Structure formats: C-alpha cells, structure tokens
Amino acid sequence: MSLHEISSRLKRGCEVIRIVLIVSFVGMVMEFVFAYFSKSMILFTDFVHWAVDTALEFMSMIALYHASKTLRRFSWGVLYMETFLMLITSIAIISFYIISFVDYVNNIIYSANSKVTTQNPLLSLVTLSGGFLTLYAFAILRKEYEKLKLEILKSEYTHALIDVVAAFISTIGVVVTALTRNPSTELLTVIAGFFFALHSITNIVEDAARSIIGVEEDKELIYNIKLKLSELENVKVKNVDARKIGSFYIVTVDLYVDPYTTLIELNEMRMKIIRMCRSVSEMIYHVDVRFYPDVEKYRKILKQKRKGIKGKSV
Ligand SMILES: [Zn+2]
C-alpha cells in the first residue's frame, strides 16, 4: 500500500468519525433538553452517557486526524492536551451525575411516598430516537469499515451496537416506569444506564492512561519492527517505540545513519521504513522516523582520512 493510499484512508476514516461525532452531539443535545424539562432521571443518565460518548468520539477524531498526516511528525503535545481536557470534562460530568444519583437514591429510600421522576410514557420517544441515531451511526461505521478496513472503525461500530441495546433498555424502562409508577423499575433502568456510561468512561480513562503515561507499550510489536528493520543496510537502530492510542499504534523509530547520507537518501529511507513498519501490523497508523548521525562511524572516517594524509606525507 502506498503512503498516499494510507493517508487518504485515514483521512476518510477521520471524516466518518466526524459524521458520527455530529450524530452523537445531536443525540446529546436532544437528551439534555428533554432531561432538563422532564427531570427524568432515566433521561439524565442517558444524557451523561451521550456526553461521554461524544467526548470519546472527539478524542478518536483528533487522534486519527493527526495520524493521517503521514509525512508530518505526530503532534503528541496536542494529543496530550486534548486527551487531558476530555478526561477532565468527563470526570466533571460523572461527578456531577453521581451527586444527583445519590440524591435520587436517598429520595427513594427516605421519602415515605417517593414518586418516580419519569412520568410521561411519551419520553420513550426521546430514547427511541436516540436508539435510531445510534443505529444510523452503526450503519455508517460498519459500511465504511468494510471499505477502509480500519480497526478503529470496527471498535467504534461495536460500541455503537452496545449503545443500541442501551437505548432499547432505556426505552422499555421509560414506558414501564411511566405506566406503573414503580420506583424500583426506574432505579433499575437508571443503574443499567449508568453502567453503559461507565463503560465509555473506562474507555476514556484507558485511552488517557495509554497516551499520557504511555502504559501498554507493545513489546512484541516493537520486537517485530526491530526484526524487520534489521533487514536494512547501513543503518543502526537506536530505539523503537510503539504506543497505542485507542485502537491503533503510533510508532517512533530512531536510527543512526552515516553522517554523509544525503537528504534525498534520508527521505527515501524514511518512506521505506514507514512502509516496512506498516507491513508488520495494519494497526500502525503513523510512523515517525528520526535520524541521528552515527558519530562512531564519522570518527572512523576521520581517522582513516588522517591516516591517509599522514601516509602521503611520509
Ligand atoms: Zn456508549
């Protein structure tokens, strides 16, 4: 696969996630408006889930965008900052939610005749619409995965499928709660919804930990890349690093090269190395290649030159 092809695939993947991000944002606003006016705890929980998923989608889009710039160095700094921002936002939302949740549970336990917060069965139309939006996102992601074969789209559509189930459970919960006015049914639906939101939050925390702290450096992948690079002549591998962001890898290769190598040769070498790394795993979306002068070699050349000059003068 040519570099141009890799880059255009990643760009298309980025566009697809942008569409899903818009869908997610629409769903989030819709749930927020109805949760705010109805005061339904089920809808409020759903809103939290949508908000966290939107943040997750945003993180994937930004990471993929940077990865698609095949010839530019990967902007780790920007990624760290955005990941950190999304992490803080999500933690703030979840904390606010937990406070409301504790209040809600207290109300059920201690109030003698506690009423359910979801009283209108028509509110199920909101969660149902959310379900259809998610189904739409799932369909796009699935279709584009078949074309682009990008692993990130697969993990996105699997998540979308789980969320369709979540929307279905919420819808049933809203209808049953509003009709029976049973606090236990509502509480059960809320807890189920919260678990789905928690599933997304763990994804965000995991992603943040992976990219910021750099845990889960893939030792086997690094070994395989080193093995592949050993095929190259006139090159000494200084270091190889492979970091996972979400469902893909960013690889950094540091090499010692002959100090007399020309820029054109270096550029060709860089392209070759990017292709070699990509051949090790399809999940490597971006490769940064950094060159360092092989000082030892340079010293040897200088020594030989000096010896040559001495030899001539005698
Ligand atoms: Zn979700």
TrEMBL record:
Q: Which Gene3D superfamilies match?
A: Cation efflux protein transmembrane domain
Principal location class: membrane
Q: Where in the cell is it found?
A: Membrane
Q: Does the keyword Protease apply?
A: no
Give TM segment ranges. Answer: 16-35, 79-102, 122-141, 161-181
Q: SUPFAM superfamilies recorded for this chain?
A: Cation efflux protein cytoplasmic domain-like, Cation efflux protein transmembrane domain-like
InterPro entries in the record, alphabetically?
Cation_efflux_CTD_sf (IPR036837), Cation_efflux_TM (IPR058533), Cation_efflux_TMD_sf (IPR027469), CDF_Transporter (IPR050291)
Which GO cellular component terms are attached? membrane
Q: Does the keyword DNA damage apply?
A: no
User: Which keywords does this Swiss-Prot/TrEMBL entry list?
Assistant: Membrane, Transmembrane, Transmembrane helix, Transport
The Cation efflux protein transmembrane domain covers 18-204
The membrane topology noted for this protein in its Swiss-Prot or TrEMBL record is: Multi-pass membrane protein
Q: Which domain of life is it from?
A: Archaea
Q: What is this protein called?
A: Cation transporter
State the organism of origin. Ignisphaera cupida
